[in-house]
Amino acid sequence: MPRENRNLAGQSRSENGSGLEGQTPSRDPGVFGLRGWIEGYLLALEAANLTPGTVREYSGKLANFAWWCDRHDLDGLSGLEPRSLRQFQVYLQTESRRWDSDNPRALKALTPETVHGYIRVLKAFCTWLVQLVGST
Question: Most buried of 23, 69, 83, 104 (most Cβ within 10 A)?
Fold first, then answer.
Protein backbone atom coordinates (compact mmCIF):
# COMPACT_ATOMS: atom_id res chain seq x y z
CA MET A 1 0.00 0.00 0.00
CA PRO A 2 1.53 3.36 -0.98
CA ARG A 3 2.33 5.67 1.91
CA GLU A 4 0.72 9.09 2.00
CA ASN A 5 2.89 12.20 2.06
CA ARG A 6 2.65 15.88 1.22
CA ASN A 7 3.97 17.95 -1.63
CA LEU A 8 5.32 21.50 -1.28
CA ALA A 9 1.83 22.96 -1.36
CA GLY A 10 0.78 20.68 1.50
CA GLN A 11 -1.38 18.60 -0.81
CA SER A 12 -1.51 14.88 -0.31
CA ARG A 13 0.23 12.64 -2.82
CA SER A 14 0.95 8.96 -2.92
CA GLU A 15 4.47 7.62 -2.75
CA ASN A 16 4.37 6.80 -6.45
CA GLY A 17 2.68 10.00 -7.60
CA SER A 18 4.06 13.47 -7.91
CA GLY A 19 0.87 15.25 -6.87
CA LEU A 20 0.87 16.64 -10.38
CA GLU A 21 -1.27 14.06 -12.10
CA GLY A 22 -2.34 15.01 -15.58
CA GLN A 23 0.56 17.46 -15.98
CA THR A 24 3.36 16.49 -18.29
CA PRO A 25 6.56 18.38 -17.56
CA SER A 26 7.68 20.39 -20.52
CA ARG A 27 11.40 20.47 -21.35
CA ASP A 28 11.06 24.26 -21.17
CA PRO A 29 11.94 24.84 -17.51
CA GLY A 30 9.81 27.96 -17.25
CA VAL A 31 6.59 26.17 -18.24
CA PHE A 32 6.39 23.71 -15.36
CA GLY A 33 6.99 26.21 -12.55
CA LEU A 34 9.46 26.22 -9.71
CA ARG A 35 7.38 24.13 -7.30
CA GLY A 36 6.74 21.49 -9.95
CA TRP A 37 10.44 21.18 -10.71
CA ILE A 38 11.26 21.02 -6.99
CA GLU A 39 8.68 18.26 -6.59
CA GLY A 40 10.30 16.34 -9.46
CA TYR A 41 13.75 16.82 -7.96
CA LEU A 42 12.64 15.49 -4.57
CA LEU A 43 11.15 12.43 -6.28
CA ALA A 44 14.46 11.94 -8.11
CA LEU A 45 16.28 12.05 -4.75
CA GLU A 46 13.93 9.42 -3.35
CA ALA A 47 14.39 7.28 -6.46
CA ALA A 48 18.17 7.60 -6.05
CA ASN A 49 17.67 6.07 -2.60
CA LEU A 50 18.95 9.03 -0.60
CA THR A 51 18.22 8.79 3.09
CA PRO A 52 14.88 10.16 4.30
CA GLY A 53 16.78 12.71 6.41
CA THR A 54 18.62 14.04 3.36
CA VAL A 55 15.41 14.29 1.35
CA ARG A 56 13.74 16.10 4.29
CA GLU A 57 16.66 18.55 4.51
CA TYR A 58 16.51 19.29 0.78
CA SER A 59 12.72 19.55 0.87
CA GLY A 60 12.76 22.06 3.73
CA LYS A 61 15.44 24.24 2.19
CA LEU A 62 13.81 24.21 -1.26
CA ALA A 63 10.37 24.93 0.24
CA ASN A 64 11.86 27.95 2.04
CA PHE A 65 13.45 29.11 -1.22
CA ALA A 66 10.10 28.71 -3.06
CA TRP A 67 8.41 30.74 -0.28
CA TRP A 68 11.01 33.48 -0.72
CA CYS A 69 10.50 33.47 -4.51
CA ASP A 70 6.73 33.82 -4.00
CA ARG A 71 7.25 36.83 -1.70
CA HIS A 72 9.48 38.47 -4.29
CA ASP A 73 7.13 37.81 -7.22
CA LEU A 74 9.63 35.58 -8.98
CA ASP A 75 7.65 33.43 -11.40
CA GLY A 76 8.71 30.14 -12.92
CA LEU A 77 12.43 29.63 -12.58
CA SER A 78 13.37 33.32 -12.46
CA GLY A 79 14.39 32.75 -8.84
CA LEU A 80 17.28 30.67 -10.16
CA GLU A 81 18.90 33.59 -11.95
CA PRO A 82 22.27 34.55 -10.41
CA ARG A 83 21.02 37.90 -9.09
CA SER A 84 18.01 36.29 -7.38
CA LEU A 85 20.18 33.57 -5.84
CA ARG A 86 22.52 36.21 -4.38
CA GLN A 87 19.53 38.17 -3.05
CA PHE A 88 18.29 35.00 -1.35
CA GLN A 89 21.74 34.45 0.15
CA VAL A 90 21.72 38.01 1.54
CA TYR A 91 18.22 37.39 2.94
CA LEU A 92 19.49 34.31 4.76
CA GLN A 93 22.49 36.19 6.12
CA THR A 94 20.71 39.36 7.23
CA GLU A 95 16.99 38.82 7.84
CA SER A 96 16.12 38.89 11.53
CA ARG A 97 12.65 37.36 11.05
CA ARG A 98 12.77 34.75 8.32
CA TRP A 99 9.78 33.14 6.62
CA ASP A 100 7.33 35.56 8.32
CA SER A 101 7.53 33.25 11.32
CA ASP A 102 7.53 33.86 15.06
CA ASN A 103 9.23 30.50 15.62
CA PRO A 104 12.33 31.14 17.77
CA ARG A 105 14.48 29.29 15.21
CA ALA A 106 13.34 31.72 12.49
CA LEU A 107 14.35 34.65 14.70
CA LYS A 108 17.94 33.48 15.26
CA ALA A 109 20.74 34.46 12.92
CA LEU A 110 21.81 31.64 10.63
CA THR A 111 25.34 30.32 10.92
CA PRO A 112 27.59 30.53 7.85
CA GLU A 113 27.39 26.72 7.71
CA THR A 114 23.60 26.83 7.47
CA VAL A 115 23.70 29.47 4.73
CA HIS A 116 26.25 27.32 2.90
CA GLY A 117 23.86 24.36 3.26
CA TYR A 118 21.14 26.33 1.48
CA ILE A 119 23.53 27.28 -1.32
CA ARG A 120 24.71 23.66 -1.62
CA VAL A 121 21.10 22.42 -1.97
CA LEU A 122 20.26 25.10 -4.54
CA LYS A 123 23.41 24.28 -6.51
CA ALA A 124 22.52 20.57 -6.56
CA PHE A 125 18.96 21.40 -7.67
CA CYS A 126 20.20 23.70 -10.46
CA THR A 127 22.71 21.08 -11.63
CA TRP A 128 19.95 18.44 -11.78
CA LEU A 129 17.67 20.81 -13.67
CA VAL A 130 20.33 21.73 -16.25
CA GLN A 131 21.16 18.04 -16.80
CA LEU A 132 17.48 17.14 -17.15
CA VAL A 133 16.60 19.95 -19.54
CA GLY A 134 19.83 19.53 -21.48
CA SER A 135 19.18 15.82 -22.04
CA THR A 136 16.72 16.44 -24.88
Answer: 69
Tell me how far apart the alpha carbons of residues 8 and 127 are, in angstroms, rounded to a whole number: 20
Alpha carbon 82 to chain centroid distance? Answer: 16
3-class SS of residue 120: helix
pLDDT, tens digit (0-9, with 9 covering 90-100), for 12-22: 333 333 333 33
pTM of the model: 0.75
Q: At what angle do helices 112-133 and 52-71 cross, to 10 degrees?
A: 90
Of 112, 122, 59, residue with least CA distance to 86: 122
Q: What is the pLDDT of residues 87-118, one digit of tens each?
A: 999 999 999 889 989 999 889 989 999 999 99
Q: What is the C-alpha separation between 129 and 28, in angstroms, rounded?
A: 11
